[in-house]
Specification:
- With about 55 residues, the protein is mostly beta strands.
- It is about 0% helix and about 50% strand.
- It has one domain.
- The chain contains no helices and 4 strands.
Length: about 55
Protein backbone atom coordinates (compact mmCIF):
# COMPACT_ATOMS: atom_id res chain seq x y z
CA UNK A 1 0.00 0.00 0.00
CA UNK A 2 1.37 3.44 -0.95
CA UNK A 3 1.43 6.10 1.73
CA UNK A 4 0.12 9.48 0.68
CA UNK A 5 2.25 12.52 1.40
CA UNK A 6 0.51 15.07 3.62
CA UNK A 7 -0.96 18.14 1.93
CA UNK A 8 0.88 21.45 2.27
CA UNK A 9 -1.40 24.09 3.84
CA UNK A 10 -1.59 27.52 2.18
CA UNK A 11 -3.33 30.80 2.96
CA UNK A 12 -4.62 33.25 0.34
CA UNK A 13 -4.80 36.93 1.26
CA UNK A 14 -6.74 39.51 -0.81
CA UNK A 15 -6.52 43.30 -0.82
CA UNK A 16 -9.85 45.06 -0.33
CA UNK A 17 -8.71 48.06 -2.41
CA UNK A 18 -6.96 46.71 -5.51
CA UNK A 19 -8.04 43.04 -5.37
CA UNK A 20 -4.47 41.64 -5.44
CA UNK A 21 -4.23 38.02 -4.23
CA UNK A 22 -1.19 36.62 -2.47
CA UNK A 23 -0.65 32.92 -1.70
CA UNK A 24 1.66 31.99 1.17
CA UNK A 25 2.33 29.11 3.51
CA UNK A 26 -0.22 28.73 6.30
CA UNK A 27 0.84 30.11 9.68
CA UNK A 28 -0.64 29.01 12.98
CA UNK A 29 -3.33 31.49 13.98
CA UNK A 30 -4.53 32.17 10.40
CA UNK A 31 -8.32 32.57 10.36
CA UNK A 32 -10.54 33.15 7.31
CA UNK A 33 -11.76 36.79 7.04
CA UNK A 34 -9.16 38.02 9.57
CA UNK A 35 -7.02 41.09 8.85
CA UNK A 36 -3.64 40.07 7.46
CA UNK A 37 -1.59 43.24 7.08
CA UNK A 38 -1.10 45.86 4.37
CA UNK A 39 -0.96 45.62 0.58
CA UNK A 40 1.68 47.37 -1.53
CA UNK A 41 -1.10 49.75 -2.72
CA UNK A 42 -1.76 50.80 0.89
CA UNK A 43 -4.99 48.81 1.23
CA UNK A 44 -5.71 46.19 3.87
CA UNK A 45 -5.18 42.47 3.20
CA UNK A 46 -7.75 39.95 4.46
CA UNK A 47 -7.42 36.17 4.63
CA UNK A 48 -9.83 34.84 1.99
CA UNK A 49 -9.03 31.12 1.86
CA UNK A 50 -7.07 28.37 3.59
CA UNK A 51 -6.48 25.15 1.66
CA UNK A 52 -4.09 22.24 1.19
CA UNK A 53 -2.24 21.17 -1.96
CA UNK A 54 -0.91 17.67 -2.51
CA UNK A 55 2.87 17.41 -2.69
CA UNK A 56 4.46 16.47 -6.02
Amino acid sequence: MKHKKPAVPYTVERCGSCGRDEKRLFREGDVVFAAAGSCTCGGKMTIEMIFGEAQG
